[in-house]
From TrEMBL:
It comes from the Bacteria. This is HD domain-containing protein. SMART domains: HDc. It comes from Paenibacillus spongiae. SUPFAM superfamilies: HD-domain/PDEase-like, PYP-like sensor domain (PAS domain). InterPro entries: Cyclic_di-GMP/3'3'-cGAMP_PDE, HD/PDEase_dom, HD_GYP_dom, PAS, PAS-like_dom_sf. NCBIfam families: sensory_box.
Amino acid sequence: MNESLKPFLALADAVIITNEKHQILAVNKTYECITGFPSDLIVGKKASILRTRLTPDETYIGMYESLNSGSPWSGIFTNRKRDNSLWHSSITISPFFIEGNTYYVGVFRELEQLDRGYYLDEQRVSSIQASLLKVLAISCEIRDPGIESHLVRVQQLTELLTERYNERCGLNMPSLELAGFSRSSILHDIGKSAIPEGILYKPGRLADYERTIIEMHTVIGVDIIGKIYSELDDEIFENELSTAKNIILHHHEKWDGTGYPHGLKGTDIPLEARIVSVVDVFDALISKRPYKEKWPISDAMQYLNTNKGKHFDPELVDSFLTLYEEGMLLPESDT
Ligand SMILES: [Fe+2]
Ligand SMILES: [Fe+2]
């Protein structure tokens, strides 16, 4: 190791120095104390031996990108100590170019407040929430055998359409909000869990009173989600709850005000509900149901186009059409 890097080892924080192949060249006393690894045990090894799966791959990808371009990088690592316990730290790695060689100096600061529990970055929290919502949505509609694939497709299509609409209209929606729309879209019909099967799956025409009962799945769904989230009682779920409620309550509203339950019109219908309305109808059309065959995608697109400005937000249908033209929509469903 180059002599000029030695002063870094005198820092009070934990320090690790590697070469350009990320082989450990030196660690300081604080590093040895915190991790329990004496330097002679880890010097010469690859720094990746300290990794755990609790640090997401994206963290490493971002780190290598930044370091390979010659820039410093900061982030959060969850590594293992020698006694196998976890060590959460905030680290800054700086590249140094000395006499034709590259060195990386990593300075760690322990995140003491995480002595108990795990550090979870936003992406990981988001994926855990998504899995929980999926389980919830599927268990609410467990009586319908094809429901899982429908819900997953609605979620994927909501993500695609939200992103495309956001780009086309230059809305600059924050990525967390975008992710929230697709995550919550899976819940759109949870209120159907309270509708009697005889009405829900009745082949043929429904009587007026049966239709009224089915339409209640929107308000019942909001009631269910409200109860679940009040149990969670945590402010990180607050935004999530309002998006989910908007989708559940308003996904059957129509652009011209003839939908239910509130007969909202145009942009009075929350955007997330307008988006789910387009993709939910689209996926229902291209899927086989007990009372209908599946439609070809081109016919379903034609249907959306004919009903834009009546049932659907015209801008959203146009955005959806661009996805279709670019071959971004999923293949026809077999269910
Ligand atoms: Fe619905
Ligand atoms: Fe649906």
